[in-house]
Write a structure and sequence with these properties.
It is a single chain. This protein has 330 residues and is α/β, with parallel strands linked by helices. Helix content is 45%, strand content 13%. Strand 7, helix 7 and strand 8 form a beta-alpha-beta unit. Helix 2 crosses helix 3 and helix 11 packs across helix 14. It is globular. The relative contact order is 0.16.
Length: 330
């Protein structure tokens, strides 16, 4: 594998990020739910990063980016499907900066409310993330506000990599970790931390799979963004930086159907009393539908990475999908 010294982000960068943000973020817990959980005959370690400030791992990258930036009076601007915006808004409020967040119309009302709750100015417009990104770029040009990129920046990737640093300390026995992928900042950071010592499996929805497409093409390419996790994992193209890091350190990438993602949400709620959004449950979906099948005795970790879900939506998910996938016979 490629040495981290030749890549933009290294383990040392992640250690430095951790030192910067440790007093600003939660050390999220891991849980060992037992072999009967989720209908899987498997000893799992689930890291509940969904309990992070602002409801997702993205607070880590937001804090690391803002702490290392020279923030002007115009503050910080960000385009987001929801979670990144909530994280930037939260970090900015804690650090005393103004935040202006642009989100597309597909963003969950729960996420938009969380951004407003943090005190940010919110602009909703456009059908997709790309529309919000264009509006954000115009705002930056007009005001001088700085941008915090959701995934394609060294400080973002290093901040997200602190998830891996914590996880390894909490569960050093793991052979494999499963991580959901959107624009690639999280998987890039976690994979860089593990650096091939632990197998990292990237999990994407079949309907939004920019890393899978980039691996097939040998470079980042545009993809269609659809499906139940589009508002959190719906990046049109994998970030250039995350692609470099994942090419070095991600051993396997798998795709899961929307039905498996909804089943994972249902089972996390049923078995762990943990509310997750679709993107936050995507890593578990790979085990439920067989997209990733561990070897005998393999010690597996799953990252639950986002909790910004409307509970009415969560309760409306049919448990039949979960039961059909687990079958009660695993």
């Amino acid at each position: 594998m490629t040495a981290t010294a030749r890549l933009p982000v290294s383990r040392a960068d992640i250690e430095a990020a951790h030192a910067r943000i440790v007093d600003h973020v939660r050390r999220t817990p891991v849980i060992r739910p037992g072999r009967s959980a989720f209908g899987l005959d498997l000893d799992l370690v689930v890291k509940l990063e969904c309990l992070q400030h602002a409801g997702s791992f993205k607070s880590r990258g937001a804090f690391n980016s803002l702490i290392t930036a020279d923030v002007p009076a115009a503050g910080v601007a960000a385009a987001s499907g929801g979670n990144h915006g909530a994280a930037v808004a939260y970090a900015a409020s804690r650090l005393g900066h103004r935040a202006t967040i642009f989100v597309p119309e597909i963003s969950s009302p729960v996420k938009i409310a969380k951004i407003r709750q943090a005190g940010a100015d919110v602009h909703v417009g456009g059908a997709r993330y790309a529309d919000a990104a264009d509006a954000c770029a115009r705002f930056r040009d007009q005001t001088g506000a700085i941008d915090i990129h959701p995934y394609d920046a060294e400080t973002t990737v290093a901040g997200q990599g602190t998830v891996g640093l914590e996880w390894q300390d909490q569960a050093p026995e793991l052979d494999t970790v499963l991580v959901a992928v959107g624009g690639g900042g999280l998987i890039a950071g976690v994979a860089t931390w593990y650096e091939g010592r632990t197998k990292v499996v990237a999990v994407e929805p079949e309907t939004s799979c920019c890393l899978h497409a980039a691996r097939a093409a040998g470079e980042p390419v545009d993809v269609t963004v659809e499906g139940v996790a589009a508002d959190s994992l719906g990046a049109k193209r994998i970030g250039t930086l995350p692609f470099l890091q994942t090419q070095a350190f991600v051993e396997e990438a798998v795709l899961v159907p929307d039905s498996a993602i909804e089943a994972a949400q249902t089972l996390l709620w049923r078995d762990l009393n943990t509310a997750t959004e679709a993107g936050g449950a995507t890593a578990l979906a790979a085990l439920l539908c067989g997209a990733y099948t561990p070897a005998a005795g393999e010690r597996v970790g799953v990252l639950a990475c986002g909790s910004n879900v409307d509970l009415a939506v969560l309760q409306g998910l049919t448990p039949r999908a979960a039961l059909a996938l687990t079958g009660g016979s695993r």
